[in-house]
């Protein structure tokens, strides 16, 4: 078969055997990057093996000693690791505190050549959402760039499921949009949407891209299929948002949750041991619940991170809030 034939090993091989800069590239990887450029309406895209690979590879490649990173305090550990690997100075601003961000920029902007603002769009542990429009306005006022991690938003928000930046009408204002296939798309791999010159630069400067075996063609082929499905799932997205709203409302009634607006619904437990005990009790009731404990969250803030899917119905989970409240009362009595 000719290279690129849709039934060839270039599309279905289970291994790539090398980095993409050697023999690990494939026709389907380039096709996926092209399709991502098309759907996001941008000139540049580069695939990574995971969101972790993206976050530890992009920032060190783009920034040096004369540059500054301003990062939301609750950004994911992969972003923190990327900053630590970077030669740039970094500071953390208080979570979703745009006034604090502005105050840091007023104080520090003139000292550095390039400044990049880094934030998640949907935060993984609390399920809260950043105001992307405010970040865009701040980055424009202070001549910065904006790096947005959409790991927990891809597939779930926006008319086409392109993420929270699409949902909030801010796609054009994001300079580096990092998305993953490992969450809602239920696959693996990641990508960055950016300008073409940036993606070309990263190919030869991002160490986590250069020095790792590329993903197998079969993964890229599956991700290409999933991407096309995501674009057509608006009805499922509306169902999931409705389901999440109902669950959150019932949890609020039972005194377990205070606010939120996404499919990630955190229930704060506090003690590690209690969180483990409650998770076991809920699994006995046929709910797949896992305790989230340090170091994933700070000491004393162990929790359940309830994450719903569009394949669920209200009848599947409607008894959960009351049963959890009863279990917590029994455990603490």
Helix content: 40-55%
The top-level CATH class of the largest domain is: Alpha Beta
* Class from secondary-structure proportions: alpha/beta
Q: C-alpha Rg, in Å?
A: 21 Å
What is the H level of CATH, i.e. the homologous superfamily of the largest domain? Answer: Type I PLP-dependent aspartate aminotransferase-like (Major domain)
Write the layout of secondary structure elements.
Elements: H1 9-12, H2 27-40, E1 44-48, H3 51-62, E2 68-72, H4 77-85, E3 89-93, H5 98-108, E4 115-120, H6 132-141, E5 145-149, H7 164-167, E6 176-180, E7 190-194, H8 196-205, H9 207-210, H10 217-230, H11 234-253, E8 264-270, H12 272-284, E9 291-292, E10 302-307, H13 314-317, H14 320-332
Parallel strand pairs: 2-3, 2-4, 4-5, 5-6
Antiparallel strand pairs: 1-7, 6-7, 8-10, 9-10
How do you describe this structure in short?
By secondary structure, this protein is α/β, with parallel strands linked by helices. The chain is built from 14 helices and ten strands.
